[in-house]
Amino acid sequence: MKALACGILLAGSVAAGALPALAQADLSPEQLKSAFESIVNQKMPAPHPPAAFDVNRGDELPSSIQPNDFPVEMTDPSVRQYQYVIVNDQIVLVDPATRKIVAIVR
User: Model pTM greater than 0.70?
Assistant: First the structure.
């Protein structure tokens, strides 16, 4: 897990500037790392996404997957404004108002 924490990436961050209409979280690498670390110790069951579901920033989370609120240890309001779900060993940040995937933390 430490290797994962050190290798946190925001999927598609290079292309983010080219797609301004795409849903995305405006979080620093430090905030993403903090979000990752606050979730890693949670004992949440992994959801079972639909077979055809592929995790992509900007896509809507399927209604069969219920995102979680961040643990109370996460005090950064920039991170807490989102919810999360773990799909395919990836932490997926979701805008609760739109259910759009705004960031993928690996």
Answer: no
DSSP three-state, residue 37: helix
Domain that residue 80 falls in? 17-45+56-105
Write out pLDDT tens, residues 27-79.
788 887 777 777 766 666 666 667 777 889 999 998 888 899 988 888 889 98
CB atoms within 10 A of CB 53: 16
Task: Please tell me the total count of domains within the chain.
Answer: 1
Query: Half-sphere exposure (CA, 13 Å, Cβ side) for 6?
Result: 3
Asked, for residue 3, whether it belongs to a domain, the answer is no
Residue in this structure with the two tokens 């005090």, named with its chain if needed: 75
Per-residue model confidence as pLDDT tens digits over 16-29: 333 334 456 777 88
Helices marked H in the chain — which ranges?
A: 2-6, 29-40, 77-80
Q: Is 101 within a domain?
A: yes
**Residue 64 is assigned to a structural domain of this protein:** yes
